[in-house]
Amino acid sequence: MSSSPSITARTGTLVQVLRRVFKLAAPYFSSEEKWRARAMLLTIVALNLFYVYVAVLGNEWYGRFYDALQNKNAVVFWHEVGVFGWIAFANIAVQVLKFYVTQLLQLRWRTWMTRSYLSRWMADRTFYHLELARYAGKDGQTPDNPDQRIQEDMQIFTSATMSLSMGLLNAVVTLMSFIGLLWGLSGNFSFTFNGTTHQIVGAMVWVALGYSVLGTVITHFIGRPLIGLNFRQQRFEADFRHHLVRVREYSEAIALDHGEKVERDQLDLRFSNVLRNYLLLIKQQKNLVTFTSFFGQAAVIFPFLVAGQQYFGGAFQLGHLMQIGSAFGKVQESLSWFVDNYDSVAVWRATTDRLTGFDDSMAAHAAQDEGLQRAPAAVLHSDDLGVALPDGTPLLAGAALAVKPGDSVLLQGPSGSGKSTLFRSFAGIWPFSKGRLQVPDNVAFMPQRPYVPDGKLRDALTYPNPATNFNDDQLRQALADALLPDLVNRLDESDAWSQKLSGGEQQRLAIARVLLKKPAWLFADEITSALDAQAEGVLYKRLAATVQAAGGAMVSIAHRAAVGDFHNQRWTMVPQAEGATGGGPRYRLDTAAVQPAAA
After folding, report:
1. Cis before 464? omega within 30
2. DSSP assignment of 160-206, as one string?
3. Mutual orientation of helices 318-335 and 154-186 as an angle, nearest 10°?
4. Secondary structure of 243-292 in the HEC alphabet?
5. Which terminus has fewer CB within 10 Å in the chain: N or C?
6. How many Å apart are CA 256 and CA 86, to the nearest integer?
7. pTM of the entire structure?
8. End-to-end CA distance of the chain, in Å?
9. What does the pLDDT look like over 282-312, one tens digit per residue?
């Protein structure tokens, strides 16, 4: 897949990033599950607050415990050991509860978000239209690998959003709880410069602040490239997985063409992209980990280096020093939240950008006006049908056509002239059509390549209707009528039928669906191209009899002349003279021939 604006990590201010996050997160907390979601979120917040309170109790315990050690006070020592047991129990309990409730909320959020996006993606053929736009080169408007965005990115987004937001909340509350404590514990720091004695009130607070700000600035400078690298890594991984799936789906064709080397080269190319970007990611992460590890280790000893002079001068006892070390660690850890979580923030930011692009693409599709105005009728009719390619090139303009019950029309024309595209317009799935079109009800469209889902054969036969709508006798009769006698007694077998059945068998299975459902109108696109002439004749007669019995009509696309024997009209896609088009349509639709097509 080519590089494009749609697969480039977005840039923006912090406010813009937070707006994107809010756009993705707000719908769930305003949905039908909002009260449960909000209650669980408030519970997690309360547990975080209690966790900080326990940490404050732990800091106070440090002072009493280490003072007891210094004073060799056994009574106080053993009492504080007992107090520690209660503090440890409270700490463990709150962490377990917080983990459990957080995981439940993440699961419910992901479930709701996944179902919501699946509904939007599958609604109004959005999944199809986005693929059309992408293959037309409109990558700036379309997402790559929507399957990954729904399956993987939503899991990362919900998990990371909860983890990072609660971590940030915990850091803010910890800072508010310990900064005053550290201010009181640190006292005044005195130093002499040029013969003058200076004092700094709350010195350890200022030291922690300066230490953390410096670390944050350096971390951002080192780690900034991680956002784009993580964005591209997700894309390259998805491209590699997508091609693996294609090789599996087209395994027979690849094997027959001896295309193993070509496909291996393509897989190696995509995997090389994965490795190349991952190596860049590792190098950047190595630089970040080197600094953050040094930063974290230095923070352990730093408060003792600063406060040690006062301790050795007898300003306070060991317990007081340990409280300073603990409080400094909490304040520094809170102020350094960005440093400690930069890598996670980079992954989360890249995921947010990918999901926002996907969301924007679906929203843009939903806001598009339908160029083709369809209306139900007893006939197929239009006086001004226009059809274009995804890049805007017109195929037809102002086409007039009419099909009434009892007609059978054969549509012919050069390969690539847009015959199948015209059928897509009849079906209402081609977004690049315009004009007014009357379309009958009870219609079946048969594409060149039928879709055969995995699972039980009965489900593949009745797709997309439930198999329970038909009894076994009806299913067996449809298979027999479609010349598939070997499948008659295999209705409950489960298999990958698209791989199991030959191309001709898949076409006959699609014909069996039509014979089973008995539509009044049938639009058939090269539905017997993989069949022999005898089978083709038998099945076309049965299809024609089915639609005639229902009082409808049949329109077919076929290149074989013999198919014309089963139709009483012929439409032709006639190329326009190259010099006469002048930017106009490439073809005109000739519907004048009403005599039987020649065999």
Report:
1. yes
2. HHHHHHHHHHHHHHHHHHHHHHHHHHH-EEEEEETTEEEEEETHHHH
3. 140
4. HHHHHHHCHHHHHHCCCHHHHHHHHHHHHHHHHHHHHHHHHHHHHHHHHH
5. C
6. 71
7. 0.74
8. 44
9. 988 888 888 878 877 777 777 777 677 666 7
